[in-house]
Amino acid sequence: MEKLALISVFDKKGVVAFAKKLQKLGWGLVCTGGTYKTLRRAKLDVTPIDKITGSPEILDGRVKTISYQAAAGILFDRDNERHQREIRARNLPQIDMVVVNLYPFEETISKKHTFEEALEMIDIGGVTLLRAAAKNYRFVTALTDPRDYPSVIEELEKQGEVSLKTKEKLASKVFWKTSDYDDAIDGYLAKKFLDSDVLKMAFCKGRGLRYGENPHQEGWFYKESISDPLALQNFRVAQGKELSFNNILDISAAIDSIAEIGQDQPACVVIKHGSPAGAAVGGDIEKVYNKAWYEGDPLAAFGGVIAANREVDRKLALKILSQKGEKKFFEVLVAPSIVIDALQVLFNRKNLIVLTNPSLKNPRIRAGKDYKYIRGGILAQNFDSRQIREKDLKVVTKKKPTKKQVEDLLFAWKMVKMSKSNAIAIVKNQTLISSGVGQQDRKEAARIAVYKATDPARNKNKKTPAGAVAASDAFFPFADGPEILIKAGIKAIVQPGGSIRDQETIDLCNKCGTAMVFTSIRAFKH
Fold first, then answer.
1. What residues are annotated to the active site?
2. Predicted structure pTM score
3. Of 36, 81, 395, 445, which sits most exposed with the smallest number of CB within 10 A?
């Protein structure tokens, strides 16, 4: 019996080439109106759907594939003799492949549209065909994504049929697609009819991790179906052990931090427990790494993640692994690429996890939603992609920051934006030299930042906060925090402003000859 493919696609991309190869392999083609015309123009031998259904396409295309004949031809169990007798007795077709992509409902509602236009983009027949084919996946190949055409043709050419494993994968993809499709319609109509926002999230290909945040907790990583080139699943594992729950959290923070500071120039960041312990930009990548690690907080960096936005060569690999008499240890290295002889050097640390992704060379700040699970629900917000530039800074003191100080202030702001609140960052020469993060009061955050900048155990390069700048992720409620910073030698401070006691802080800065600027934007990160 000739194998039949029922093809009904809104997106015609690749369908002509696919159909030609099917026909060359001896398949019969049954198509709906628009697809029929497209394939006929390509001079293919195509059967219109009404020859199968016995009824013409009507109601402006609202009814064309919904039929007893098409459903039976897809759904019958080929291993069931009674099913086979019924199909033969009624002279019904045997449909072995369903190729359908749905009306673009989500695309339609994402731009200017009328409600009637949205309703017309709710696919009925296509969803029915796909679900039927996916249900009967052992016998019917269900295709809903043009990107799967080549692999299906390849299997047909090599072995004469589509493998069960591929059919299983394609069936799963159908139910994933139709579930997302229904969720989009549900959310749209709930907002329209019920004045209620509906949030439904779907993740796939969950895999177990070594453990969760602690060894007694189980952990998993589930992938989100997104187009972000810097999504963790798009990184290649060049070497190392399995990622842990905490590794993944820190790698994600490292990617976001590199995107903040490294869009236009070489950058390196060292992340520990979700906050930068060192970061720098400017110069070649080797110089930037030296600044980030040795002029930052190498004590806090112990066990963290190093991320760079330039290729790692052998010289840099040797430097990254060098001890210099210190207790140096990190778990993960992330870079756009790593040359072969550098990998040979890094392999000396067999447990070191090395990830690469070319998109890291030109990183972009993440967009979309940011979610936090709480007891009883979920919080949602837009990801904080707001960037502060020089034009956004408001000078509130008599002393104005110099051009170099402005560069450092903007860098320091990016550091507190990427750090757990409450956060204070001290920066010199576009290098994070210390920070106080995750504190419950801002005065203590300032005290810790100053202490770390002067602590002998962290200060082998004899760095000093004198002449540096500082940033605060939220306003200073009192002048005591700035007082600690100014006494340590800080010459310029950036903060959001907005406290009822702002004037006290401004007066202190004026008295001490310190520049202060406001961003009018807060950068909390809980």
1. 135, 273
2. 0.75
3. 81
